[in-house]
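Sequence in, structure out.
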Amino acid sequence: MLELESLSHEIKEALSEDCEDYLLHRNIPLHSHSYDNIIIQALREGYQMVGFDRGPYSRLNYDKPNY
């Protein structure tokens, strides 16, 4: 389970922007403008974290070599 409290402000902001885009492209109205509530709403509507490419849960981080 995603712990929103453990995310940095920058990651939370980027994730909420991605979630907001997800909701708006599906014509789902936002219930709130807080980062946490947008993320929670998008997850309930089917948003998948594997699509998020700007944070610690990004697939891109797993592709980077460990040097």
